[in-house]
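Recap slide: Membrane protein, sequence and predicted structure.
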Amino acid sequence: MRELTHWAGIIFGAAILSFGINNFIIQNQLAEGGFFGISLLLLYWFKIEFGVSFLILNIPLFYVGYRIFGGKFLIKTFAGVALVSVFSLLIPENLVPSIPDDKLLAALYGGVVNGIGLGLILRFGATTGGSDIIARIANSKWGYSVGRTLFIIDIFVISIVAVLQGAMVAMYSLVALFIAAKVIDVVIEGVSSSKSAMIISELTEDIANAIHDKLERGTTLLKGRGGYTGQEKDVLYCVVSREEILRVQEIVHDIDPHAFVIVANVHDVLGEGFSPLARKIP
């Protein structure tokens, strides 16, 4: 049942991504990074269907990826590429009216829709090949950062877009890329609704007791040592909701105004008081 859910998510994501590319990117003559961008340029300049060129460009990478990562990697990667290619050929390009006079709006909507689609594909264990495969190969063979490799490929393709399609198209396309990246993070990781706090104080036990009593949240005392003074002291760590972090700061200030507090966003907080642990296990 779980595997069926994953495949349904991949298919749904591929359909959404193809809808976004056809109706917001292609309709408004925008571009993308990576192999999506190369396929779009082939469409604009040589009238080669996006789905056809995208599939053909990925075929050599399927072979290389299979040799390095094995058949399990190939199955879902091929599925992601094939589904996007097929849906991009089947979904019409006029389901949403074009907005040639407001390419920024097209880039914003395209980024959101594409981010949702690609986020679903990645969340359920597939990829869309292309740059992803190259980045993984570079990481496996030479230790290059996956994120840095993807960034370099995107910048290279967008630079070609700027030369062939104009600087304005390239800039609007960068907006779509940026929005899509943010939406992908939200789809994969969820909206961050929790905060963590690390509190360094001489009164950590008093602060911990106040958090237990007033917020009914658990805390953890970690052993720390000052890098400059060498002095041993406790470090208090706790995770609370976004709404409760201000109350934590108030508690700390009331007990020890000289305390040092570090607040950070956290994702996927699992366990008592937050999301059930079993729900997040794939």
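The mean pLDDT is 89.
The chain has two domains: 2-189, 194-280.
(End of recap.)
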